[in-house]
Amino acid sequence: MPPPESPIESKDAIRQIFISYSHKDKKFVNRLTIDLENAGMNVWVDEKKIKVGDSIPQKVEEGISGCDFFCLVISRHSVNSKWVEREYRTALNMQLSPGTTPKILPLLIEGVELPLLLREIKYADFSRDYKSGFNDLLNAIKKQ
Prior knowledge:
By secondary structure, this protein is α/β, with parallel strands linked by helices. The protein has helices at residues 26-38, 46-49, 56-65, 82-95, 130-142, and strands spanning 16-20, 42-44, 69-74, 103-108, 124-125.
């Protein structure tokens, strides 16, 4: 008898989502977080997971390494953020190890150019229609 699937391997498992964003895009991220949680996802957002006295870089790295999906909110604010760049570079480095997570899912919320390292990854387009972008994101998460 084969062993049962582990929670990470099961398609019905609760997905762990890390959201990387500029705080200037907080309104969008708040809506996205609520919608993902309503869809049964466990969402890692800095304001909920990092407490006073915590090491920010350590908590962020723990959050990224513990997630299944790294959602990168791309806007005119985030493409100029050193923190966001640090986070997506961490996620990219983790992806280089075979069989590791997270899967990077870019979320375009404005018509800006994607960072060079992310241009080969298909993004969910929220820039024209939130609902359509969200459905594309959910489909990408659920097919994994």
